[in-house]
Give the backbone structure.
Amino acid sequence: MDSKTRQALEEIIGYCFKEPTLAEQALTHSSFANEAPEADEVCHNERLEFLGDAVLNLVISEMLIAGCPKAQEGEMSHMRAFLVNKGELASTAASLDLGRFARLGKGEDRSGGRQKTSILADLFEAMLGAVFLDGGIEAARRMVRDALGERLEEFACEKPEPDPKSHLQEVLQSRGLGSPSYSLLEVDGPDHYRMFTVSAHLADEEIGRGSGRSKKAAEQAAASDALLRLKS
């Protein structure tokens, strides 16, 4: 990474690296490392992502403890999960324009990798891991607060709405109807752009149907559809 690119990145994340190779590693997707001629010498960002995930959970936990003194463990666990899910992290990475700096393999780049939720979320966690290694926990805390501060203020002390699957289960059980089940109906599309279709069932009756880029996302969509049908 040249000095101009590194400077632009550091301005965005609000941190100047003492060891620039950490920033470069955080931006390197496994697809790039696998295609590089010197592949054995190129380090991708998965180890930094692993570290960043742990650091993020620690910092968010600290902020919830400080900001929500009356919240119980279960409530804080739910709020933390809501705040650090892949969708939220991908939105944060997109707002920081981290995808612009990503080092991707040619195929991954052509298939829209710079906009993929999983890649963007991993970029944020890997960059946080790199900042932690380079500057310590205080630098990592500042990065999280700068990047997620508004979202934390918005959600930290308000119990977020449950995800559709959890909400559907709560609604059905409150009516004495038991728990829903989910069935995979179809998987369509090329390998890099799979689309899953799932149905939600109560006993033998289909109560909802939905599609998504993963089985989990399709199940959530099916649950949302079921909730809409129940309301109507």
About this structure: The CA atoms of residues 13 and 63 lie 19 Å apart.
